[in-house]
Amino acid sequence: MADRILITVYGAEQICASCVGAPGSRDTYEWLQAAIGRKYSDDKIAYEYIDIEQPPDNEKHQQLSERILNDEFFYPLVLVNDEIVAEGIPKLKTIYQELDKNGAVIQS
After folding, report:
1. What is the mean pLDDT of residues 24-32?
2. Which of 12, 8, 21, 13 is nearest to 89 (CA)?
3. Over 50: is that where the pLDDT of 24 sits?
4. Residue-number span of the structural domain to which 83 is assigned
5. Which of 77, 74, 82, 87 is nearest to 98 (CA)?
6. 40: helix, coil or strand?
7. How many CB atoms are closer than 10 A to CB 10?
8. Would you place residue 18 in the very low, low, confident or very high pLDDT band (cuts 50, 70, 90)?
9. What does each C-alpha distance from 9 to 1, 48, 85, 107, 108 come to in angstroms?
C-alpha cells in the first residue's frame, strides 16, 4: 500500500472545446476534492492542480501539459499516482476504483 495517494488535475481556465456544457477545470478539481473527501479518509490523499498554460518548472508536468495542448488528451485530465484515470468529464466510479487499488481508506 502506498504511503500517499496523489490526485493531480491538469486543466486550464478555458473550458475544453470538446467539453461544452461541462464545468471548468478548477471547478472539477474542487468538486473531486469534495466528493472524494465524503467517501475516503483524507489523511493520505493529497491534491494538486496544474495549469496547462503555465505549468510549474517540472519536466513531467511540462511534458504532460504540452501533450494536452497538442490535443493528445482532453482536459481536465485526472491522474491518481501518475496513472491517468479520467479525461474531459471525469467519472467518480473510475476514480474511486483507482483509489481503492492504491489503498485509500473508506470512511466508517
Report:
1. 93
2. 21
3. yes
4. 5-101
5. 82
6. strand
7. 26
8. low
9. 22, 6, 10, 23, 27
